[in-house]
Design goal:
Shape: globular
Oligomer: single chain
Largest sheet: 5 strands, parallel
CATH class: Alpha Beta
Structural class: alpha/beta
Number of strands: 8
Number of helices: 9
Strand content: 15-25%
CATH superfamily: P-loop containing nucleotide triphosphate hydrolases
CATH architecture: 3-Layer(aba) Sandwich
Helix content: 40-55%
CATH topology: Rossmann fold
Number of domains: 1
Mean pLDDT: 91
Length: 234
């Protein structure tokens, strides 16, 4: 039997990494885990509870206090999974523009990241998992057997996010979405703690002008190559 791999998929917002991770996990019969949903959940809760987003200590305490769960999707509305915050379905709420505009700030706090990191590592180190995020291959799971970094232009990513929002009746112009996304990219790449970047040994893929199946096929090819290499080394 082939070794159950741990696979890290990183990349900027709306690059398609969650879609790829979900599809790849389904193909391999692995656990799919989108770590970004945890940071979005903390951000949403902070906005709803009016926690000061400049207070890293208060945000870290909130991250510890919240009960956040990511489970297989229970509704056929385009979602990849359900995100529950203290028992409430918040799957689409965590994708609102206000969350988009603030999640990078919240996730930049050391205390918040530390509050969530150990849970992420415990899941990843079991193997048989595809983890999607922004610092999986560099920080959360540097031991991952295969590291992928999925990218696309900010214009393409904004178009995708706007289409997703419109499909669920959410307001906002594509210009607003792109502005928010550019700001988030800048914060993610420039933060002192776990900045967004490909791991040194990551394979960089692009989803620009590609169908999801094309990206998936490339990822499956890379998984087969990694398995073959590990088998030769064993």
């Amino acid at each position: 039997m082939s070794k159950a791999l741990s696979i890290a998929i990183d990349g900027p917002a709306a690059s398609g990494k969650s879609t790829l991770a979900k599809s790849l996990a389904g193909h391999l019969d692995y656990l799919y885990f989108d770590t970004g949903a945890l940071y979005r959940a903390v951000t949403l809760a902070a906005l709803q509870r009016k926690v000061d987003l400049e207070n890293g200590e208060a945000l870290a305490e909130l991250a510890v206090a919240l009960t956040i769960d990511v489970i297989p999707s229970t509704q056929e509305d385009g979602r990849l999974y359900d995100v529950m915050i203290d028992g409430k379905d918040s799957t689409w709420a965590i994708r609102m523009p206000e969350v988009d505009a603030n999640v990078s700030k919240v996730s930049a706090y050391v205390g918040v990241r530390e509050s969530l990191r150990e849970q992420q590592r415990r899941i990843g180190l079991r193997g048989g998992v595809v983890m999607a995020g922004r610092d999986i291959g560099t920080v959360v799971l540097p031991e991952a057997d295969l590291k992928l970094y999925l990218d696309a232009s900010v214009e393409e990513r904004a178009r995708r996010r706007h289409a997703e929002m419109s499909a669920h009746g959410e307001n906002g112009s594509i210009a607003e979405v792109e502005k928010s996304m550019r700001l988030r990219d800048e914060i993610d790449a420039g933060r002192a703690v776990a900045p967004l970047r490909p791991a040194d040994d990551a394979v960089i893929l692009t989803s620009e002008s590609k169908l999801p199946k094309e990206v998936l096929d490339e990822a499956i090819r890379l998984v087969k190559l990694k398995r073959s290499k590990l088998e030769q080394e064993s």
